[in-house]
Amino acid sequence: MQIINNISAVRSKITALKKKNKSIGFVPTMGALHEGHLSLLRKAKKECDIVVLSIYVNPAQFGPREDFKAYPRDKKKDCLLAKKEKVDIIFYPSDKMMYPRRYLTYINVNEITSILCGKSRPTHFRGVTTIVGKLLNIAGPDVIYLGQKDAQQCIVIQKMIDDLNFPVKVRICPTVREKDGLALSSRNKYLSAKQRKEAVVLYQSLLLAKQHIRRGTKNIATIKNMMRKKIKKTSGKIDYIECVDAKTLEPIKTIKGKILIACAVKFGPARLIDNIIV
Amino acid sequence: MQIINNISAVRSKITALKKKNKSIGFVPTMGALHEGHLSLLRKAKKECDIVVLSIYVNPAQFGPREDFKAYPRDKKKDCLLAKKEKVDIIFYPSDKMMYPRRYLTYINVNEITSILCGKSRPTHFRGVTTIVGKLLNIAGPDVIYLGQKDAQQCIVIQKMIDDLNFPVKVRICPTVREKDGLALSSRNKYLSAKQRKEAVVLYQSLLLAKQHIRRGTKNIATIKNMMRKKIKKTSGKIDYIECVDAKTLEPIKTIKGKILIACAVKFGPARLIDNIIV
Fold this sequence. Notes:
2 copies of one chain form a homodimer.
Chain A: E1 2-4, H1 7-19, E2 24-29, H2 35-47, E3 50-55, H3 75-84, E4 89-91, H4 95-98, E5 105-109, H5 117-120, H6 124-139, E6 143-147, H7 151-163, E7 169-173, H8 193-198, H9 201-214, H10 220-232, E8 237-245, E9 259-267, E10 270-277
Parallel strand pairs in A: 1-4, 2-3, 2-6, 3-4, 6-7
Antiparallel strand pairs in A: 8-9, 9-10
Helix pairs in contact in A: 6-7, 9-10
């Protein structure tokens, strides 16, 4: 396993591998690796000759009052975990390298970035699409691996890739959960013991919604109300609960076709998100 | 020479050539080819194994009241000229292919796109950077060739390529001029005989500025006034006359270092631009 800090070094390394007809699988992360990330690395290892992992806490996707500084960083542990998964290359750049002085360029996906998480985090997805665009240009992978936990991120990145004709395939892997159902997230570290116990309510409210849809409930307001009631029994503060088209994120009027049910709830400093597709 | 309309066809053709270690030179155009474009094709042919020419009148870079519909289109003539220059591949896509239904993604370079031409054409450069980003992802060239006539476009595209880490080199080629000095442009076709004669004033006013700078004039207002006076003797309507840093387009206070002097003047339906570096 090679840890590379430098853009031109990682690029020439990967270009050489591609000339030897090696396929490149790419997993972009902000580090603080957990089983969710590892499942992406395993999938990439299975499907591609070379696995490239990027670890970079991207300032552009954090709002001014968000947790950029507090975001967990543990290079040593991350590298150990990556080595166990037989990652070939870790790209570990600095802020100076990714956003040099007088940086001016951003990729914007309109409309679908101003709903759900984009409503309370207005510059978040601009930061995500910009860094992913940069990383795709640097690593030039054949396949990029993303986790379904960040459902909107998956759809926004897929849309950017389609619209801008990036020559890469997107593979979305299932959400990995704790035993009690809580979706794995680097931000779970922010939770107190009490909050940790309560936080399972995100998944439980999603399962409740699923159950009622399976039983025939078609009214979206009814479903959202049910979820809201359940979450309100905890100390969590609801950011949003939404039911939208699972492919386009477009608003829907009634339960029909594939639907994404998604919610965001704040427990103290931790803003948690979860979703299911029904 | 192959004319390809289809994104995946042109991509797989070029990918195959790159696997054979062929270098790819790329010239993006809106067609209506003139000696300026041909000089780019010749430079590309000299420096690269394969020359890819794209011909696409990009709607995203025209404002609502601009000349998108009137813009000259002559596929047959363009293909003949390209063949003479030994172009290997012409990429000739449709609007439907480049901007399918529910297209949402744009590349924005901030600041340097809202001055000079960007002031009177507020969405122009967003259209330019988006289409060039798309074409770079489709063609994957080693070198892109641009003409100095569109000075701001060259700097904006270079900035996008640097900021987003596109793996491509930029080569900027000198402006090609008519015998009397008028910069070649597809839009010169809009000029009446009288306007055509008058239009040489753009270059003449630039030369006047150069002369005075060479003689020691340091005051920018003086230089701009001189140019304004000269242009006002014709029927042309001045859009802007500017002196800025030739690398960054940043405003300057006095003549020092490499300076871009640029102007835009309207003659009837034709908005003409020209520039020199001093």
